[in-house]
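Morning run. Coffee first, then this:
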Amino acid sequence: MDIEIASFIVLRQSTKPKMACFDDHRTIGKYMEPNISIVAGLIADPTRAKILTALMGGKALTATELATEADVTPQTASSHLSKLVDGSLLQVRKQGRHKYFQLKGLSVSELLEQLLVITTSVQPKVQTGPNETRLQYARVCYDHLAGELGVKLYDALVAHGILIDAGEQTQLTEKGQAYFGELGVDIVKLQAKRRPVCKSCLDWSERRNHLAGSLGQWVLDYIFEKGWAQRDLDARSVSFSKTGLKAFERTFLIEL
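And here it is:
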């Protein structure tokens, strides 16, 4: 082979861009390690934090409604909403001419709830939980009951052997399966879902567990279907009627 041609080939090979070798753990870390600062930066903005908190009740809200919640102009809210959608923290649902915004999944709601717990723990001089009495008493945490009544529900189910409190992995006992089966719960159907049937969620106002998971969602839906309570229009608080509260306590074995 001509020396000039051979030299040219060697030079070309030596100047080719090197592909990343993913057998090197340092390279894997560089290319694949998640950057939490992106999500943290989105949540850290005070206006976006208010928007996210307003959506923790699970309801879909318009940009105008969220602007009111965050106390900003519609134009400012629109800018923040775009960033939250692009960051996969919110999703948009269109119905007719209107656009509605929701948290993008249960994992986002759980992250926000944990941040609220951490926030109150690092600010010990601040009263834990929401200042509003209605929210402290009973509220929606994405799709399950939270607040004082949510904690009472969880404690009663544990005390009567319906649930086993095992940290985050709360377990439904055989007695519990029979108990909820009599109330109309299709336990087999719930078990077939990817979501855990039972899960404890640390309540950020009570600092104790309340019931989450698909069973927690079923309980909240059951409360509304029975007409025992209704969601307040101006907040994620839940208001029980007197007869509804008695029926709730009697059904779920809550001692007065």
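DSSP finds 13 helices and ten strands in the chain. Good start to the day.
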